[in-house]
Amino acid sequence: MRLDKLLTDLSVAGSRSQCRDLLKSGRVTVNGAPVKDGAFSVPAGARVALNGQALDTRLTRHVMLHKPAGVLTAAEDRKQKTVMDLLPPVYASLGCMPVGRLDKDTTGILLLTTDGELAHRLIAPARHVDKVYRARVDGTLDQEDAAAFAAGIPLKDFTALPARLEVVAPDTALVTVQEGKYHQVKRMFAARGKQVTALHRLRFGPLTLDEALLPGQYRELNEEETAALYAAAGMTNE
Length: 238
Fold this sequence. Notes:
The chain has 7 helices and 13 strands. The chain has helices at residues 3-9, 16-24, 89-93, 116-123, 143-151, 184-191, 223-232; strands at 28-30, 33-34, 48-50, 53-54, 62-67, 97-98, 107-113, 131-138, 164-169, 172-177, 195-204, 207-208, 218-220. Strands 5, 6, 7, 8, 9, 10, 11, 12 and 13 form a 9-stranded mixed beta sheet that branches. Strands 2-1-3-4 form a 4-stranded antiparallel beta sheet, with no helix packed on it. Helix 1 (3-9) packs across helix 2 (16-24). The longest helix is centred in the last third of the chain and has 10 residues, at 223-232. The radius of gyration is 22 Å and the shape is elongated.
């Protein structure tokens, strides 16, 4: 990859022209040697540094975010705060995008990745990747609701795939679905005459929300978590 493009993708500077000025200053080194030519092809595994400090040059990133309420799951929005606003600019520069969508008032685990194929597979119903939510409703849940979820609930524009509903309190249940269409869980409960008052996603595929993450906080996935995610998508991360 060209050095100027790498620096731009890593949000070291906001534009190619700013990168050129940075390079001309001699503050960027590759394997310890100053490089002033933006067209320089950076070798794989090279150590790129700015002002003597090594840059994280990984172009592939996988992130777990504890999504708070009141934030849109979107790349950008002119009027409202999005999940990308919770991350440093480098993630957007690298093309890191949410895997699926959580409603504005829904909280919990949200995965983001630079790997578009991985994201596509993880949200495809054919992959049967479980998403587990804790839902609180205005009403009383019973085994008839669980049976209806297990049979698949007809909605206006589609019939939701069979889902698991485990009642844990009169007004609270754990819901496991394998698809994630717009407002799906809320609509499934509405079809049973119950309004969702709080919805929190606990798990996405093999990954459970890190309890150490407060709402709005994030961390990158470790190697084991990344491998498990690729396996759930029927892929390898090699």
